[in-house]
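subagent[fold] <- orchestrator: predict structure for attached chain, return tokens only, no commentary.
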Amino acid sequence: MAQVVYGVWDGVVHDARRNLPGTDTPLAALRNFDEFDEGNAVRAFFADRGFFVFDESVSLVDGLFHYINKAAEQSCGACTPCRMGTVLIRDALDKMRRGLDSPLDFDDIEMLADQMKETSLCGLGQTCCIALLEVIHHFREQIEKEVADHMPIRAQHGMAYMTAPCIEACPSKVNVPRYIDYIRDGKPENSLGVLLQKYPMAATCGRVCVRYCEQACRRKFVDEAVGIKTLKRFVADQQKGPHALKFTREMIQKPLADGMKVAVIGAGPAGISCAYHLLLHGYHVDVFEKQDKAGGMAQIGIPNYRLPKDTLAMETDIIVDLGGRFLFGQQLGADFTIDDLFQRGYKAVFLGLGCQEGTMLGLKNEEQVREGYFTGIDFLLKVHDHVDGINTFQLKGDVVVVGGGNVAMDCVRSAVRLGADNAHLIYRRTRDAMPADTEEVEEAEKEDIDFHTLCTPTRIISENGKITGIELVEMEETEPDESGRRSVRPIPGTEHVMACSTVIAAIGQQVESQERIAEEGIDFNHWKCVEADKSLTTSRPGVFAGGDCVTGPSTLIYAMSAGLKAARSIDDWIQFGTPRFFKRSRMRELINENAFLANDAVETPVRNGYRVHNPALDPDLRKKMFSEVEQTISLEDAYTEAQRCMRCYRLYSVITKHSIPEGAA
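subagent[fold] -> orchestrator:
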């Protein structure tokens, strides 16, 4: 296990050479710091909360130069302290490490660093000099000794990485502050380019993303989180069509030989993302899809009032625009096998199968029901066909939806639009514990959905195969366990019957046709998901998998992230025969495993300004139709919202024994 020789973290000095202060410092509990990559020891680490050194021979002056140099490169230039301070300090440290006379001494550098920390307007300027100041305050004698003989300091290996809480929270690691900066600067086309580097479905994501980034946004400590999702939708809607195609065509690498082709199975978000990035890498891609349209669960599982299908089609069509092919009506195991694909010359196969098989409640008497009982997926498919004019589908009487996720919200809100007299949502835990996006819950409440929390179904009641009611029992929370999590248990004697004509089980999904897929040499785990390692490689060589079929039912942004990761792994498999080392991914691993991103509040005063919200149709009107509920914000509102971003960038830099292998971001 790597041992810190000396350093400072959150103001606490650690120096094993002087026994300061012992094992009570966070530096004593660092994880996964023995090597950065195989055989390459970590010698030092610099960050926004301090620094630590594993190898006493490390040059602090050289290490700090590279750290501040990255800050100077990334400074937006909006404020003088950061714009000028980073350059002046960088140049002074550069002179020192090269053995030349510096126009600034350490007193001058300390003064500039203090000014930057106290007066910069964003997180980058406020924090990029903290490690430098800690060195000057606590280890000044050491850096003065390094430069005393005016001899050049040997250059050190390493890398620097800039990130922000919102970036780290995003599964696709989108540079959120950067695309907001472009909106603020009046360059929405560049903002779209930032998004398209990660995935092609920006307008779709701007409508249905569950906003992990906003949950991590530091602005919430001031008033409300920045409307990152709202801004994403604005950019995508303003720059759609030809603009998106122009950017993606510019990103395409040199097309590979005709034989360099990959098969993608499933045209859902994971498959679309994988195909998109493979096309950008120059591969020839065919997407096999059992349905007659692309989009997967985004197509059949998200109602039009949240995601208009013309918007989805516009973004999935980019696969064809970039030279890929959709082969519809093709199902794995029924119309082709993986052996067939390899025999046809495909170099690799990606499984983006999703989870399109619903789960029943498993209640007494449910097998007797022939009418009025659906899984959430089956119900949403009927909704999709109704809206598309394929098969009319109407509801009457009371409808009960069981579940607390986004699928449950889609089901219960769709039931209202299909004519239900009353729509009820049953959830076994509290409202606050619902996994559904908070906005979806709030919108459902506006549409007069009746929420019944802390209760669960125990029995289906039917007559002649038709549902007439559902028996429920009330639940209560237990005392918190060791992890602090509360469970729930039924309260004896609270059983009661709720009359209804339709019951929808929106409690989970699983991979369809598992036995047929297993026959292709694909292993499943005990969660009944496809087994895949960190590089998304399956048990069968050359076959990769990602999205819901690997993780279980998740979110669109997680699926698209998996598609990007799989495309990189497939490229490595074909070009090198093994996954490459990605240094930025390794830095993220260190940051996340050690919780380096502090969950602190901004110290610089910020004027309160609450977020802009998407204009929405009146609840009484929208309950009668499937038209899109939320609308795009105006240019003026987008500019106002973009101004609220505090650019909470943080810098991290590592010094290693050897050079770090080059890989993708």
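orchestrator: received. Logging for downstream: The CA atoms of residues 85 and 112 lie 6 Å apart. The domain at 254-356+511-580 is CATH 3.50.50.60 (FAD/NAD(P)-binding domain).
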